[in-house]
């Protein structure tokens, strides 16, 4: 009896070890949101959306991420940066449920913030659905930014979405299908917005405002210079007119003296009296 019990425990322990060894390592931290919003960061195109972790609707465990955009359309996401290896295959996967998400656009999805790479396009109202996509990093990749997202660049929506059990795993071999990521832009080449983003970024808006202010200031300076120039011309004109009046008056006095036949030398003290 003792031998059978011991043999059973050995088999059970061996099976447990094999199951642990066979599990893929999740490169995402807190992918099930059991630790709240830890290591995830809220990121929205504009105000109006709420991102929180609660037990309202979960796929497994006790908590899930919920993104809600009740009225004004938005592109809202919770993001996390993950270190990766160059020229390597990965799989991003997770579970998504929705409620009244705008139809006809990219709805609830999990994505890489670089470009339009995403899995899921869940709109309307649905229970939890499994989504995934494979990708290969370029030779220049050392990190990616993963997003649990309601909306997309140029596809802002309203509605509500839940996200749970998100995984990013490294693949040991090439999958049947995958998306090859474009090389990341260097710091000097990066534009103010993300790849393909149609929404105007704050940097673009700030630059536009700056050049508007510069333009207004330039016009103001030109107007001021023209005003001062006109004022100077007017002053010179008035001075010239005054000088011409003085010269005319002196000429008239000279002509009057010539008509009288007298000069200044002819005039004595008596003539001046």
Give a verbal description of the structure.
By secondary structure, the chain is an alpha+beta fold. The chain has two domains: 24-189, Jelly Rolls (Sandwich); 200-237. Helix content is 31%, strand content 32%. The protein contains three helices and eleven strands; from the N terminus they run H-E-E-E-E-E-E-E-E-E-E-E-H-H. Strand 6 (108-112) and strand 7 form a beta hairpin. The longest helix is centred in the last third of the chain and has 59 residues, at 202-260.
What are the defining features of this structure?
single chain; 273 residues; Jelly Rolls; 2 domains; six-stranded mixed β-sheet; five-stranded antiparallel β-sheet; 3 helices; elongated
User: Based on helices, strands and strand pairing, what is the structural class?
Assistant: alpha+beta
Largest sheet: 6 strands, mixed
Q: Any low-confidence stretches, pLDDT <50, length ≥5?
A: 5-22, 190-204
End-to-end Cα distance, whole Å, is 159 Å
- From the coordinates shown, what is the CATH architecture of the largest domain? Sandwich
* Shape annotation: elongated
Question: What is Rg?
Answer: 40 Å
Give the overall pLDDT as a whole number: 81
Strand order of the largest sheet: 2-3-10-5-8-11
CATH superfamily of the largest domain: Galactose-binding domain-like
Proportion in helices: 25-40%
Per DSSP, the total helix count is: 3
Q: How many extended strands?
A: 11
Q: How much of the sequence is in beta strands?
A: 25-35%
Order of helices and strands: HEEEEEEEEEEEHH
Could you say what the CATH topology of the largest domain is called?
Jelly Rolls
What is the domain tally? 2
The CATH first-level class of the largest domain comes to Mainly Beta
